[in-house]
């Protein structure tokens, strides 16, 4: 059997190696997963046939989805099975595996990050575009420290002050994606009800809405307000977030947070469905140019 041609694979792998190390292991892990899927497809192997090299179909599925880190032995075994003969391509695959083991900046907070939330944190920090629809509360990336503290205290109940402080620091640290050298473009549709729902008292809400006004001045932030129910729209019942990742081989991430869990729909039609829903919400919300006026009216009503 002839070896799998390198060509574009090698070039794309080289691009993946240039990922910002501050983003942690997520980008190299996802890039590696995408290329392992492509190599298997080019070889014409079923998942069951390829899994023999690893001893487990579940293990192969986890590696190909980027859910788990890929070991050096895994890469070597799959490279041999897929007929990867070019030295540079093998080295690039192995380097991506190595990078997927480096700790993310969030590692010191790992104790307070639920397992179901960890994949989202990693993907959020490398996303080029973050689109979200928020129903009940201002989304995490747009919260002030006071609002975040009040929300976390409400969601997690009374607990040690140190733990609440750590959760607030984690939330604020995630907001660096808005202000880094190459910031993510954040496009939020916020239900008006979330701005009328008191969190932490009048002063906290006043500062939160003023903060949203300040964020509207950022060129990478788009904020739209969806009018209260009765304005002729039927909005989805829950919040949703779509992440566009900065690599052609990586599909959008759909994140649906539940009370104490999350769903990551990953079938193509599911991603298309949520992308369409987000587009519909954007057309039904007030245009971004009206957002500052709406926010000022809400501040005046406090």
TrEMBL record:
The organism's taxonomic lineage, starting at the top: Bacteria, Bacillati, Actinomycetota, Actinomycetes, Streptosporangiales
Source superkingdom: Bacteria
Residue span, HTH cro/C1-type domain: 36-90
Protein name: Transcriptional regulator with XRE-family HTH domain
One Pfam family matching this protein: HTH_31
A GO term, aspect molecular function: DNA binding
């Amino acid at each position: 059997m002839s070896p799998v041609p390198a060509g574009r694979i090698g070039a794309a792998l080289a691009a993946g190696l240039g990922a910002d190390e501050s983003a942690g292991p997520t980008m190299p892990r996802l890039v590696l997963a995408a290329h392992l899927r492509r190599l298997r497809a080019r070889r014409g192997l079923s998942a069951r046939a390829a899994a023999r090299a690893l001893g487990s179909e579940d293990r192969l599925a986890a590696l190909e989805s980027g859910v788990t880190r890929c070991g050096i032995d895994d890469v070597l075994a799959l490279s041999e099975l897929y007929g990867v003969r070019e030295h540079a391509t093998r080295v690039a695959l192995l380097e991506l595996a190595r990078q997927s083991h480096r700790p993310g900046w969030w590692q010191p907070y790992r104790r307070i990050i639920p397992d179901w939330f960890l994949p989202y944190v990693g993907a959020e920090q490398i996303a080029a575009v973050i689109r979200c629809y928020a129903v009940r509360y201002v989304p995490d990336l747009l919260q002030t420290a006071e609002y975040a503290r009040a929300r976390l205290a409400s969601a997690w109940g009374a607990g040690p002050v140190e733990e609440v402080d750590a959760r607030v620091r984690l939330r604020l640290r995630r907001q660096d994606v808005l202000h880094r050298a190459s910031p993510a473009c954040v496009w939020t549709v916020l239900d008006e009800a979330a701005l009328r729902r008191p969190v932490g008292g009048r002063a906290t809400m006043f500062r939160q809405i003023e903060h949203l006004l300040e964020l509207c001045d950022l060129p990478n932030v788009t904020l739209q307000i969806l009018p209260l129910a009765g304005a002729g729209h039927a909005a989805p019942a829950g919040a949703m977030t779509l992440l566009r990742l900065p690599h052609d081989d990586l599909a959008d991430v759909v994140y649906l947070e539940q009370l104490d869990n999350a769903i990551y729909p990953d079938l193509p039609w599911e991603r298309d469905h949520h992308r369409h829903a987000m587009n519909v919400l954007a057309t039904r919300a007030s245009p971004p140019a009206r957002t500052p006026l709406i926010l000022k009216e809400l501040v005046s009503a406090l």
